[in-house]
Amino acid sequence: MKEEAAKNKQQEAQRNKQIAQLKKESRVRQMTIKNLEMEKRQREVVLKRKQEEVHVAGFLLQPHTPLHSSPALCLTNSTPPPLPYY
Prior knowledge:
Elements: H1 2-61, H2 71-76
């Protein structure tokens, strides 16, 4: 009986050790997932900011014509265009 009890105790200790190891691996994986998600969010924020900068830069590089001098608007409207406010 003592031998069987010792054997059971040893098996239980081994199972507990294995469970602890699996829990540790799970925590490590969860932390890795959280870190990767955080890094992804940071990259998305940087990408969005860069895209906005490119959009603004492109907008600033385009030649702008005031609405009142657009020939297409003058042809479609029967009334003269409004004068600009200065």
